[in-house]
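Lab channel / #folding
Pinned by the channel admin:
"Please post every new chain as: sequence first, then the structure tokens as a reply. Keep commentary short and put observations after the output so the thread stays searchable."

First post following the new format, from NK:
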Amino acid sequence: MSQKINVIHIITEHHSTLCSYATGRVSLLDLAVFYGVPFLLGVASWWFNLELDSDRANATIATAAIFAGLLINVLVLIYTVAQKGAEGAEKKLVKEFFANVSYAILLSVVTVVLIMANLFLPQPYNWIWALVIALFTQFCLVLLMSLKRLHALLKHKVGA
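Reply from TO:
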């Protein structure tokens, strides 16, 4: 794979943010929430033969695409904060937030590509819909985590 499109480092950096601050080790609860819950929802949707009709697929594409665009702008803002010389706990929060937002953008792009591919197939595959549901669930969870980190960062910066 070309190094220009290799996104493994985005995945590994995001995964490294799922550590407990107390122990410094990967939190099993975080793994269960961020990987287990989406996986179980995806499996349940496959098991119950749920599929996205074209209206829901289009709404999901629009949502994911809009969030991807907005999150790219957030990355620019993070870069601005990083340029101002964040140190200590603030620097760690900025790095983790950057990793989480980058991963959320990746999830958005992959979700859109999978939906588009499944819509153009002669017969859509239920396992692709299940994967889309799992990825979109994980996207929502990562977005919530990113919001919490942004809140902590701004609270630290503003002193509120």
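NK: The CA atoms of residues 8 and 14 lie 10 Å apart.
TO: also worth noting, The mean pLDDT is 87.
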